[in-house]
Specification:
This protein is mostly helical. It is built from four helices and no strands.
């Protein structure tokens, strides 16, 4: 029974994380496109809708599910116990950085809604790389469990 429960949790966690990362990688790309259209244009308004839906219906729920299931996995495996694996603490630190990036993206979306974006396409291209780098380190920690 335990193995089946654990494997289901693990599978659902991976699905939620993939969904979260897909959105975290796509939203800054939409921002790049948004910087290249005229404020108030039909294209700008369409991008606002796309950005809102992506954040509200994919990124936010996927992040919440990733955390809920991740916490259940930590509880079930006792990784967070005193004297437990140190890699999980580093992973949680990196996840907090990912949540910070998530918040930054949400703030930028609100700026686009108000037609108050002050950043360039280059800025959003660079911002787009941060979730990728964090994801690489998080996956390495989760798979290799180096310490």
């Amino acid at each position: 029974m335990w193995d089946n429960y654990y494997l289901w949790l693990k599978a659902l966690h991976i699905i939620a994380v993939i969904s979260w990362m897909a959105g975290m990688l796509y939203l800054p790309r939409l921002f790049v496109y948004h910087t290249q259209v005229e404020k108030g244009s039909e294209a700008s308004e369409m991008l606002k809708v796309m950005e809102r839906r992506l954040l509200r219906y994919i990124i936010n729920p996927a992040m919440i599910m990733s955390f809920i299931i991740g916490i259940l996995l930590i509880i079930e495996t006792k990784l967070g116990a005193p004297g437990g694996a140190k890699w999980i603490h580093v992973k949680i630190g990196l996840l907090l950085l990912m949540v910070t990036v998530h918040g930054i993206l949400a703030r930028h979306r609100k700026q686009f809604v108000r037609d108050a974006n002050i950043h360039s396409a280059r800025y959003y291209r660079i911002l787009n790389e941060i979730p990728t780098v964090l994801m690489i380190f998080i996956v390495i920690l989760a798979v290799l469990k180096p310490f």
